[in-house]
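General statements about sequence and structure are easier to judge against a single worked case. Part of our work consisted of pairing the sequence of a single chain with a tokenised description of its backbone. The amino acid sequence and the backbone structure tokens for this protein are reproduced below.

***
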Amino acid sequence: MKFILPGLALAALSLAAPTEQGEISPEAAARICSYGYNYCGSTLLNIGNYENDIKGALNAKKQPTDGDHILYSLFNCNGLISGSIQFLQYCGVGNCTNAGSGNDDHCSA
């Protein structure tokens, strides 16, 4: 069972860059993964600028950092506020499934 703590959302907002008017833009606040969920690399790239994080997570587990491994690997969001990730497994080309908001992505083969 996964819990999303309301205070974490507020903390994440405080880390987002303010707009020229000093407000937090929704786009900036929504650029991190949700703690405890699993994500395909392609999903992380749609959430925000995760390319360097994905490559770092792959390198940490001595995995290739080619386009297929970036897009079709499964990662866990393990940073409560920072949105950091760790590599779980490579699913294979076309075999990482985006299960939608509030669900873990998963390997389909």
Remarks:
- The chain is about 35% helix and 15% strand.
